[in-house]
Structure to design on (328 residues):
């Protein structure tokens, strides 16, 4: 077969409209690094599963993307990570959700797929499982980035401003009126920002 | 959200997706990324898909599987199936985002209907392509 690898990366609020040349250069370099990592596996005759995991590791380890280090914050100021993997040959699949201490959630998803009888594990249980399978566990602070923290403060602040200036109940998000969105949402009671 | 789909020399497809979700989310909200069939799917007979977008819409529309199903039951190409789901079905329901999809012959599709989509691919010739859209 013709080996092929495709990736997507999302950065939340950063689109081409507000991206500096330096930022764009950094994103392009990180995406290229991810492609090279995955392609190297395929070129050596490696499995597509390994290539996917390698490429995603690069993006999870980069503070630029909303995954792993660089993940956005919840309202409570936590980084809750989700990941999934599926094998097209066997139909096996694995996923983790709401994990806060697994450095590379994609590897945890793969471990669920290959080393458990289950498809999805969540929260603490998923973290215990990942640790038992030898995956790298980190302090939740590892995922902190200043830009994501500031984005949370801004979202919370805007929520308060809305409440302070209106007695009306917060409106439900109107996706058509709310404007454009990127692949990751900043969500307040009445607005979303992509 | 980041994701990857790949085809190896043995013709095997795989898909993976990883995300931090959305800023300021509450109540243990989970989007489509870890939901098999919604944000992630792979089947050698059809395609591998990783999605990024407003998760609730992707979950309700079972986006990743829907692309594979259109290929399997309707005989659509990966490009047409992905286009049908992302640019028609999702748009009709107000769902924003996009996918990367790849079939077992190395044909790929990267449709999206919103801003801030970062994409990259490399085929057997080794030429790396990176694009930041809109």
């Amino acid at each position: 077969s013709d080996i092929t690898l495709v990736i997507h990366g999302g950065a939340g609020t950063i689109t081409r409209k507000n991206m500096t040349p330096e930022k764009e250069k950094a994103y392009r370099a990180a995406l290229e690094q991810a492609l090279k990592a995955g392609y190297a596996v395929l070129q050596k005759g490696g499995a597509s599963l390994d290539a996917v995991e390698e490429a995603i590791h690069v993006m999870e380890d980069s503070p630029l993307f909303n995954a792993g280090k660089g993940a956005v914050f919840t309202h409570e100021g936590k980084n809750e990570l989700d990941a999934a993997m599926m094998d097209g040959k066997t139909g096996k699949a694995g996923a983790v959700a709401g994990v806060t201490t697994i450095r590379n959630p994609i590897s945890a998803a793969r471990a669920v797929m290959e080393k458990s009888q289950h498809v999805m594990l969540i929260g603490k249980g998923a973290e215990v499982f990942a640790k038992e399978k030898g995956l790298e566990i980190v302090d939740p602070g590892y995922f902190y980035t200043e830009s994501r923290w500031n984005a949370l403060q801004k979202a919370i602040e805007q929520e308060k401003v809305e409440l302070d200036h209106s007695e009306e109940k917060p409106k439900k998000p109107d996706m058509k009126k709310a404007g454009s969105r990127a692949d990751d949402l900043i969500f307040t009671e009445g607005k979303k920002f992509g | 959200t980041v994701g990857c789909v790949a085809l190896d020399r043995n013709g095997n497809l795989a898909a993976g997706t990883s995300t931090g979700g959305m800023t300021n989310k509450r109540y243990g909200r989970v989007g489509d990324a870890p939901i098999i069939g919604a944000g992630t799917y792979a089947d050698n007979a059809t395609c591998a898909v990783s999605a990024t977008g407003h998760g609730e819409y992707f979950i309700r529309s079972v986006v990743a599987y829907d692309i594979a199903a259109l290929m399997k039951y309707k005989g659509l190409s990966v490009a047409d199936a992905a286009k049908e789901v992302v640019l028609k079905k999702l748009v009709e329901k107000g769902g924003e985002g996009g996918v990367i999809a790849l079939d077992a012959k190395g044909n790929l599709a990267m449709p999206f209907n919103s801003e801030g989509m970062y994409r990259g691919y490399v085929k057997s010739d080794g030429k790396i392509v990176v694009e930041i859209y809109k």
In short: The radius of gyration of chain A is 19 Å. Chain A has a mean pLDDT of 85.
